[in-house]
Structure formats: structure tokens, C-alpha cells
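Its record is quoted verbatim for completeness.
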Amino acid sequence: METCVLLSARKYDFNDDAGKRVEGVTISYLTGDVETAGDRRGASPLTINAPTEVFSLLGPLPGLYDVDFKQRAGKNNRPTLMITGVHFRQALDGLLGSLQIPAPVVKP
């Protein structure tokens, strides 16, 4: 289990080229890892897929969650990380709602 900030979740449901149904949830999240050296700074958002059932476990987004991960064999038996469960801890909507972002200035 790892504590993460889940930013957003989007369901998908489509048929692949072979006609097989593909469904799940794409989740964008942040971990506690912050880059401070080299040509990168800050926290880069990560994206991962999860089973459709995980969507119904989500509370408010963005939010702080304890996330259960599991490895499984992916293409060419390379390990692939999957979210298997989420446990809500704290909403972050108040934090983001308090940001004062000015509207863009459009010049004629």
C-alpha cells in the first residue's frame, strides 16, 4: 500500500482491433517522489490503468488515498503495475478551490 494523491479518473470501454471488448479506468496520480536534480524538478503525474470496479471505490478527486498495487505479467512477460484497491483518506478540493488563477488576457 502506498499513499498517493489521485488527481483524476476516466472510464474507458471500447472494442480493440480484434473485436475484443476492453474496459477499465485510467487514473492520474502523484506519489511522494519529487525530482530535485538534473533537468527535472517537481512531481511528475503518473498514469495507470485499473479494473472498472475501482471507479466505484473512488470518493472525491483530487484526493489523498492509500492505494493497493499489484504486479502482473504484461507484454513479453514484463511486469506491469495495476491498482487493485483504493482507500480514501482526505479530500483536496478545498486546497485547489482556494487557488486564485487569473483568466488569460486575450489581445485583439
Q: What stands out?
A: Residues 2-93 form a domain with the OB fold (Dihydrolipoamide Acetyltransferase, E2P) fold (CATH 2.40.50). Strands lie at 2-15, 21-30, 46-50, 63-73, 79-91. The longest helix spans residues 53-57. The chain has a mean pLDDT of 89.
